[in-house]
Amino acid sequence: MYYGRHFVKTEWDLRLPLQVTSVGYIEQASIYRENGFHHFHWLHTIEGSGEFSVNGTAYKLQPNQGIFLKPNVPHSYSPDPGGWSTWFMTFHGALASPIVAALDIPQTTPIDWDAECPLGSVHERFREKCSHVHDLAGINGSLEAYAFLAQVKQFGQSSGGLSLSKGHERLTPIYLLIEESYGDPDLGLGRMAETLRVSPQYLNTLFRKSWGISPYQYLVQFRIQKSKDLLLADRSRTVKEIAAAVGFQDDSHFVHTFRKLAGMTPVQFRMQHGD
């Protein structure tokens, strides 16, 4: 039932962006790390519960709850009287810090998820991988570490907020509206908020949590991507005609926006992609 494995790494492995250093499903014992753990460290509850203490705060970790720590953060944890089964992964790598920063996964605070999502059965998926060294070595290990972090980003939620997947699902009516009406120059934040039946301020908050940009910025980027398709699909259409087709009332504004986002003008884009 339980398993655990630590991995020996070569000099070549250490140059990879990410690399799994240990993984396991265990009956958790009490641990105190005065100087923290030397690699990035994830731990979550499979069965039972336990107390995880970090930065002077103690958290009770129930099933489908985990916590993520960067290296060298002092912490401790201990099982409750009924026992505590946990799954853990530790990793490092040449780009571990910037990858973790880019994914913006909450640290030192509990993260939870729905039991049906892939995180709920990750301990079962890794059981087989731990029986074959090559499944978590080299490039394979790097891919597995990134895939796991991506799942935490996609399905995990903290402080009662929406997970990334739930956030995208909530915004589906807006995606459909933009897909159907991007050519309407009057499409704006007010209409998008009405479609979702929320305030413009709250829609901004939802979009920034899911995309890191505002709904209007998303719309503008969508229009520019559509304009690229039109520029190549029908080369007889003028830039002014394409600007109007994707919702820009002023073709000079379209050219300015296109240059800002694509790094070149619409005409240069056409030339770069040949006849």
Question: Can you characterise this structure?
Answer:
With 275 residues, the protein is an alpha+beta fold. Helices cover 44% and strands 22% of the residues. The chain has helices spanning 11-14, 96-103, 122-129, 138-155, 164-170, 172-181, 189-196, 200-211, 215-233, 239-245, 251-262, 266-272; strands spanning 3-6, 19-27, 31-33, 40-54, 57-61, 65-69, 75-92, 111-112. Strands 1, 2, 3, 4, 5, 6, 7 and 8 form an eight-stranded antiparallel beta sheet that branches. Helix 10 packs across helix 11 (251-262). It is elongated and about 70 Å long.
| Helical amount | 40-55%
Distance linking N and C termini: 61 Å
Radius of gyration: 24 Å
The structural class is alpha+beta
Would you identify the regions where 5 or more consecutive residues have pLDDT less than 50?
A: none
Look at the structure and give the mean pLDDT: 89
State the helix count: 12
Give the biggest beta sheet: 8 strands, antiparallel
Order of helices and strands: EHEEEEEEHEHHHHHHHHHH
Proportion of strand residues? 15-25%
Q: What is the 3D form?
A: elongated
Number of strands: 8
